[in-house]
């Protein structure tokens, strides 16, 4: 039996690497050519950067537009926002409960 990755799994995978998070931060300032992104990581070269771009594209975080031989990479922050909001919503009740308890303890001590 093999596990099927959900779309959310692909987004978390994309966010799980520091280099991919840096690519996201750079693209948050605007679209960049692939060559610009390659310059950020001289240690892994073009092939390594393209593999990271592929993971981000698979998660829907980056959209690539080709103009001739030039690849423009565009950030779509919505998938990140969606999985983060969903994850926080699942855990917020416990956080609210802890905060309420902390407030009650603090008020008793006064």
Describe this structure in words.
The protein is of the alpha+beta class and 110 residues long. The chain has a domain at 7-77: Arc Repressor Mutant, subunit A. It is 65% helix and 13% strand. It contains five helices and three strands, in the order ααβααββα. It has helices at residues 7-15, 18-27, 34-40, 45-58, 78-109, and strands at 32-33, 62-67, 70-75. Strands 1-3-2 form a three-stranded antiparallel beta sheet. Strand 2 and strand 3 form a beta hairpin. Helix 1 (7-15) runs antiparallel to helix 4 and helix 3 packs across helix 4. The longest helix is centred in the last third of the chain and has 32 residues, at 78-109.
Throw out a few tags for this protein.
single chain, 110 residues, alpha+beta, Arc Repressor Mutant, subunit A, three-stranded antiparallel beta sheet, 3 strands, 65% helix
Overall strand count: 3
> In CATH, what is the homologous superfamily of the domain at 7-77?
Winged helix-like DNA-binding domain superfamily/Winged helix DNA-binding domain
Q: Report how far the terminal alpha carbons are from each other.
A: 58 Å
- The general outline is elongated
* Strand residues, percent: 5-15%
Radius of gyration: 19 Å
CATH topology of the domain at 7-77: Arc Repressor Mutant, subunit A
């Amino acid at each position: 039996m093999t596990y099927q990755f959900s779309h959310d799994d692909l987004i978390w995978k994309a966010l799980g690497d520091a280099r991919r998070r840096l690519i996201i931060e750079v693209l948050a300032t605007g679209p960049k050519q692939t060559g610009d992104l390659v310059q950020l990581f001289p240690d892994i070269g073009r092939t390594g950067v393209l593999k990271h771009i592929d993971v981000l594209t698979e998660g829907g975080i980056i959209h690539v537009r080709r103009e001739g031989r030039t690849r423009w990479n565009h950030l779509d922050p919505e998938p990140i926002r969606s999985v983060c909001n969903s994850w926080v919503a699942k855990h917020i009740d416990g956080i609210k409960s802890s905060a309420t308890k902390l407030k009650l303890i603090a008020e008793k001590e006064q």
